[in-house]
Amino acid sequence: MGPRSRERRAGAVQSTNDSSALSKTSLAARGYVHDTFAALLVPGTARRAPLIHRGYYVRARAVWHCVRAFLKGTCAAPGAPRAQILSLGAGSDSLYFRLKTAGRLTRAAVWEVDFPDVAQRKAQRIRDTPELCALTGPFQSGDPGYTLCFESSDYRILGLDLRQLQRLDHALATAGLDAAAPTLLLAEAVLTYLEPDDAAALIAWAAQRFSNALFVVYEQMRPHALSQTLVFPPSETFPRIDPASPSGDFPASVVTGNSQGPDLKRYGHASVLLSPGLILSAGGFGEQEGRHCRVRKFHLLSRYCDFEWKGNQLCSWGTGAQWDGRLYHTMTRLSDTQVLVLGGRLSPVTPALGILQLLFCKSEGNNPEDLNVTVTNVGPEEDSTLSRWRHSTTEVSYENQRYLFVYGGRSVAEPVLSDWHFLHVGTMAWVRIPVEGEVPEGRHSHSACSCQGGALIAGGLGASEEPLSSVYFLKPISCGFIWESIVIQPPITPRYSHTAHVVSGKLLLVGGVWIHSSSVPGVTVIDLSTGLSFEYRIDTTCVPWPLMLHNHTSILLPEEQQLLLLGGGGNCFSFGTYFNPCTVTLDLSSLSARQ
């Protein structure tokens, strides 16, 4: 990683402090924990989702338990040396003030280290807040540019880069940290933001520097699109299954034009290519009118130059049915002006029932901005067949008729579904068609795409909540269809929440979540004639970091040899909800050059 990339990454890491601090403020405001100081240390307020609150509650309880146990064990004996807490990457955390109020620092002190900008802002916040100054007692402030930003008898804040270990060691010694005293080192959601070598070096420094210490780490233990860490070696419990060495790169770039509005910041949506140069996205969870919610506006991405796109918002038109804000549904293009919506959910316990049809009426000037969308219910709302989400819908052919093959997913009652259904496009009726062969394991969050009149199903989450690596072909035969398992060599990394496309006899699996791998998901290419698999890395040098390729959609542009990646993101226990900020294109030209 070059200097500019390291600087950009450091800036992104620093920005997570404010979001994390707001999450802690929201946690305290909703009564999950008692912390009157969180709101004093960060400006502004935010209301996080219950999922974020639960993650932060576990985090807060775990860290508090470790800190309290350490102080109890080291400060109980008469004449014991003063205990020390060294919080690495402390940010705006209120640990010192909670310990001081609880009377647990009579024979202990706290040192905090974070980036200089973060440390200086926190020190200034304390100086400007009488309630906080009353707890610290008399203090001294460091000069601008000085490492020690704040100093009292039992509290010191230092502004340092944790990657600069020599400076860190010298500054802590100067600030009075005793390497021989009982010390608790705390790294709370910190190491995962460091490069693997830097994280390993920091841990090695701590092991050599302190003779009587505990190191408490609270991290995501498995790879995540936001970051990855190699600090924890592979074990029998969590084996490391790395994909084959990359066969090449697919360069990623930001789509030019006016396509980066907040209306496209969403995940759990669906997208279809209505016609060349016209892409519709609907539903999902995202940003709308300045807040996070289930998105009720449609998004239309239209190409107005050879390489430029423009995004517009559309609303339901007319007095009939309206878009209900569903997510994790499927959309299938029936024609340039007709799209079918199946399944999805309105909440974790409320499925979106019925079949919706979206009809598009173009203006006289044929301007995409003036497109009208009419939502119509075309199926019985009480039909329980579509009481599912995170499923797949694929167009297949049987006896020269068009059918939609609905497979898998999950429901309120079942965490994984293994059934399938055929919907006749012409009559909108469910039809029984014989299917032979060994039935695949039930799954959701898998990928599916049309191939030779049948459907290719890949990956997903199985009944045990473990990612799957299997690929099945629903192959057309004279009397219906037959399931065929595709043998792939080398075996692909298990994944879910990815997308897929068939290009020139090759199956492309794009992104997803990989639990048992240390690498960031890229694009897996499977030759359907030979079963050979190849891994391609996504070169993200020219796109905003991080690029979270799950819960996204992708549109294949075969003539341009490109893939458009729209939306994507998810929840992180550390700082809340993240949305990919812009549409990204992948250049697939190297794939054709390989043929």
Automatic annotation (TrEMBL):
One of its GO terms (molecular function) is tRNA methyltransferase activity. GO terms for biological process: tRNA methylation; wybutosine biosynthetic process. It is an enzyme of class 2 (transferase). It catalyses: 7-[(3S)-3-amino-3-carboxypropyl]wyosine(37) in tRNA(Phe) + S-adenosyl-L-methionine = 7-[(3S)-(3-amino-3-methoxycarbonyl)propyl]wyosine(37) in tRNA(Phe) + S-adenosyl-L-homocysteine; 7-[(3S)-(3-amino-3-methoxycarbonyl)propyl]wyosine(37) in tRNA(Phe) + S-adenosyl-L-methionine + CO2 = wybutosine(37) in tRNA(Phe) + S-adenosyl-L-homocysteine + 2 H(+). Gene3D superfamilies: Kelch-type beta propeller, Vaccinia Virus protein VP39. Coiled coil: none annotated. It holds the Pfam family LCM. InterPro entries: Kelch-typ_b-propeller (IPR015915), Ppm1/Ppm2/Tcmp (IPR007213), SAM-dependent_MTases_sf (IPR029063). Pathway: tRNA modification; wybutosine-tRNA(Phe) biosynthesis. Its EC number is 2.1.1.290, 2.3.1.231. Keywords: Methyltransferase, S-adenosyl-L-methionine, Transferase, tRNA processing. Belongs to the methyltransferase superfamily. LCMT family. This is tRNA wybutosine-synthesizing protein 4. It comes from Balaenoptera physalus (Fin whale).
